[in-house]
Design brief:
The complex is a heterodimer of chains A (about 140) and B (about 130). With about 140 residues, chain A is an alpha+beta fold. Helix content of chain A is about 30%, strand content about 30%. Chain A contains four helices and five strands. In chain A, strands 3-1-2-4-5 form a five-stranded mixed β-sheet. Chain A is elongated. Chain B is an alpha+beta fold. Chain B has one domain: 6-pyruvoyl tetrahydropterin synthase/QueD (Tetrahydropterin Synthase, Chain A, 2-Layer Sandwich), CATH 3.30.479.10. Chain B contains four helices and five strands. Chain B has a five-stranded mixed β-sheet. In chain B, a hairpin with a 2-residue loop joins strand 4 and strand 5. The chains are: A alpha+beta (about 140), B alpha+beta (about 130). Chains A and B meet through helix 4 and strand 5 of A and strand 1 of B. Strand 5 of chain A pairs antiparallel with strand 1 of chain B.
């Protein structure tokens, strides 16, 4: 059974590689490379796979899931400039893909057990763009 | 890892099989058979699968946007699907057939064609059609 919980955070970022020229960054990332950054209302949907506990009827305690999401994602990233305030984005470009991978890495050890596993992280950068990451390459 | 990008286009169509009688078409397609056609705000979701490259992206946004704009949106947006789209000549422009046309147009002749995973076309927010690449 799959359980999905949604959370939102607002953050600014700039997509650029410090080793490239402004023109190169502009060519690759377009307006997202504007040096002073811009923001998004990110929406993250975290999907946990597991069996409902026969006693509680729950796959994963929703209060705990909410708390884990808050501690690992919302608290560190909400109303932050990702490149300047949220490692590893001081050295890794915070594309939607890389932010989703980072969220996965933060959640994975906290959502793991004999009967449950983190299944997917879906990160919406806008309503018209999202990525799905389920671990691996 | 997958990336999904959403696009929109508005188009009109009429569902009608010329070989069928007026009554048969009416029975088969209902209001979609009304003779002068009608329109929808279609939503197209394009999903590309693969590892991010050295830029941290599965696919460059501008590359994908340009591809979809040139191959799909410029040909379908604000068009009559029965009359303005050559590839649909003689084909009933159901959203199923539209999805096949769109998949075909996005599946070839660009660097990440093999990474196209699926497309989803919504005719309204109640009718959606998904096609694996």
């Amino acid at each position: 059974m799959f359980l999905t919980r949604k959370a939102e955070f607002s953050a600014s970022h700039v997509c650029s590689n410090p080793d490239w020229t402004d023109a190169e960054n502009r060519a690759v990332y377009g307006m997202a490379a504007n040096p002073n950054g811009h923001g998004h209302n990110y929406v993250v949907e975290v999907t946990v796979e597991g069996e409902a506990d026969p006693l509680t009827g729950m796959v994963f305690d929703l209060r705990e899931l909410k708390q884990v999401l808050h501690e690992e994602v919302i608290e560190p990233m909400d109303h932050r400039f990702l490149n300047r305030e949220v490692p590893p984005f001081d050295r890794i470009t915070p594309t939607t893909e890389n932010v989703a991978i980072e969220i996965w890495k933060r959640l994975k050890p906290r959502i793991d057990g004999p009967k449950i596993r983190l299944f997917n992280v879906r990160l919406y950068e806008t309503a018209d763009l999202y990525v799905d990451y389920g671990g691996g390459a | 890892m997958r990336l999904t990008r959403r696009y929109r286009f508005a188009a009109s169509h009429r569902l009608d099989v010329p070989a069928f009688s007026v009554e048969e078409n009416r029975r088969l397609f209902g209001k979609c058979n009304n003779p002068h056609g009608h329109g929808h705000d279609y939503v197209l979701d394009v999903t590309v699968e693969g590892p991010p490259d050295h830029t941290g992206q599965i696919v460059n946004r501008e590359t994908l946007d340009t591809l979809v704009r040139e191959r799909i949106l410029q040909r379908l947006d604000h068009r009559n699907l029965n009359k303005d789209v050559a590839e649909l000549a003689g084909i009933v422009p159901t959203t199923e057939n539209l999805a096949v046309l769109i998949r075909g147009a996005l599946s070839v002749d660009w660097p990440l064609a093999s990474r196209l995973k699926k497309i989803r076309v919504s005719e309204t927010d109640r009718n959606m059609f998904e096609l694996e690449a």
